[in-house]
Amino acid sequence: MDYAILELFTSLVISTTPIDNQPTTHDESCDLSDSDIIFGLNDGLLDIIKRISSLHFRSRTKKVNNSTTITEAVGIWQDLTTWQPPEALPGEEYQQLYDSYTSALFTWLYLILHPDSMCDGKVQSMVEQGVVTMSAVTVLELSPFLLIPLFILGLASVQDEHKDFISGAFDQIEEHTAFEEVEVYRTMVERSWENQDQGIPRSWEWIQWQDAGSAG
Q1: CB-based contact 163:197 (threshold 8 Å)
Q2: What's the CA gap between 183 and 181, in Å, rounded?
Q3: Is the CB of residue 95 less than 8 Å from the CB of residue 132?
Q4: 44 contacts 98 by C-beta, under 8 angstroms
Q5: pLDDT tens across 122-173, in order?
Q6: CA 38 to CA 30: how far, in whole Å?
Q7: Is residue 195 included in any domain, yes or no?
Q8: Helices and strands: H and E segment counts in the chain
Q9: Quick check: is 131 in a domain?
Q10: Does residue 33 belong to any structural domain of this protein?
């Protein structure tokens, strides 16, 4: 399912028109101008998602050992810490969208390293930050991009107010877009909440319970 996330993200960004930024002066110009930036595609975000997705899949299917997982995760964490979105954005909501992804990706990476720590304060603080930034994204054209943060942060949510927001955001995207994937990701998040209510360990770990379902 990790690679389905990659496919979804790529499908969301591949046909997106470039962010319409302010023109740069000659001194500020470079090989890739700000006006050529496409959300998620050539701003470095897609590369980070690919690396986390690959690490998650390989670590859960025993294709890498624990020490390799830790080493790779620390490297990705450092890169995510220093990563910045484009400086010139057409509106504040783009910054909130990028911040939503940052919270979600840190949460995902943390849970790969600490799969039994979903209720930790660090995780729930990142979920809270993500909910706050996602709630600030009200432009309908940007709402489909929230699917991945909603999915990851939804899986990690333990508080009712966070779950209520996640459910409402899924409703809004489904109502205003034609993305069939909305129901798929919503169903997976709701299943994780059911697992959580039943006390099933690692209820966020969709690879784990998907594999178990396939085996059954």
Answers
A1: no
A2: 6
A3: no
A4: no
A5: 999 999 999 999 999 998 888 888 999 999 999 999 999 999 999 999 999 9
A6: 16
A7: yes
A8: 9, 0
A9: yes
A10: no
